[in-house]
Specification:
Blueprint (H helix, E strand, L loop, with lengths): L1 H21 L25 H5 L3 H15 L3 H10 L2 H21 L2 H15 L3 E3 L5 E3 L3 H22 L6 H18 L8 H11 L7 H11 L8 H13 L4 H6 L4 H24 L4 H8 L20
Antiparallel strand pairs: 1-2
Helix pairs in contact: 1-13, 3-7, 3-11, 5-6, 7-8, 11-13
Length: 314
């Protein structure tokens, strides 16, 4: 163990620098994750959510998987198409999603609620019609549920694939039950709170989904995303492939992924699983660790399974 740590330690600094460049933290006026002491936020250190969202490899690959899934929903896609600059700033969208998920997971309660209120205000301004004339709004409870479920499914799948494959359904149920409180605070409704409910939700939604030219264009932009990191092309292929490997079988079919793409995704998944410990070692002092200390707890608890039971916090 000591020899391995000595060999990989030089890589930790490099990896930490490029991750923080791609997804910067602690900007001026940002969230104070160190205070107030004892503030558990929306979840707290004994939650499943704190553990799953602390894993960078699973979260980034999961976020990319969620984007792919979201291109299949016509109304959700129309909002991105009409009201974002995804063609020129897709990395900005990823950063904003990262900041929101990280903030609502680990921030003190007041800051987390302020994040939710800010996003709700933005959603209220995003309205339009799809290509076939169907009206949509980003504050539509059904759309909010779709976005939430695709993200939580993908983050959980990323954690299982790149950190712990043996998380059983009971842990998954706790995760879905915990995280739906954020979606409900945003205005989502009928949010599934268990693994079985998520599977049933996806089965029901499939009749609404389609893969069209807009979907293809967004995925083309995603495939060319320029990560502000060394070896940007290689890093992009690694994480995009690892994200695609998390797609459920029905989505692989709907997205019309070729045999070559499927094989490349499996190769990328194997590579990321091997590299994931390097990311964990390099990012051991992030907001999750700081939040544990805010609660007077050791960051090592994030590696402990199963987490202690806890009362639901609001």
């Amino acid at each position: 163990m000591a020899l391995r740590d000595a060999l990989v330690a030089p890589a930790h600094g490099v990896v930490r620098r490029w991750v923080l460049k791609a997804f910067p933290r602690d900007r001026k006026g940002g969230i104070d994750y160190d205070h107030p002491e004892g503030d558990a936020g929306l979840f707290g250190p004994d939650s499943v959510t704190w553990r799953i969202h602390a894993d960078f490899a699973g979260m980034l690959s999961g976020g990319l998987c969620a984007l792919m899934l979201q291109t299949l929903h016509p109304r959700a896609l129309a909002g991105v198409w009409d009201h974002s600059n995804f063609r020129t700033d897709l990395i900005g969208r990823l950063r904003r999603t990262t900041a929101f998920v990280g903030g609502t997971t680990y921030a003190p309660a007041m800051a987390a609620h302020q994040l939710v209120d800010r996003v709700k205000a933005i959603h209220g301004k995003v309205r339009g019609t799809t290509a076939d004339g169907t009206a949509y709004g980003a504050d539509d409870p059904d759309l909010l549920t779709w976005v939430h479920v695709t993200e939580m499914y993908s983050f959980l799948a990323g954690y299982r694939r790149y950190r712990r494959h043996d998380l059983h359904a009971g842990i998954a149920d706790r995760y879905y039950d915990e995280t739906r409180r954020v979606a409900e605070a945003l205005g989502a409704r009928d949010v599934p709170g268990s693994e079985a409910a998520v599977e049933a939700y996806f089965a029901e939604r499939q009749k609404e989904l389609r893969f069209d030219e807009r979907s293809r264009e967004v995925l083309t932009v995603l495939a060319a995303i320029e990560l502000p990191v060394p070896m940007a092309g290689l890093s992009r292929e690694l994480f995009l492939g690892a994200g695609a490997a998390l797609l459920p079988a029905w989505a692989v079919e709907k997205l019309d992924r070729s045999p070559r793409q499927r094989a490349e995704a499996q190769f990328a998944a194997a590579a990321l699983r091997g590299l994931a410990p390097v990311f964990r070692g390099a990012l051991s002092e992030g907001v999750a660790a700081r939040s544990c200390r805010r609660m007077g707890r050791s960051p090592r608890l994030l590696d402990q399974w199963p987490p202690a039971s806890q009362e639901t916090r609001s």
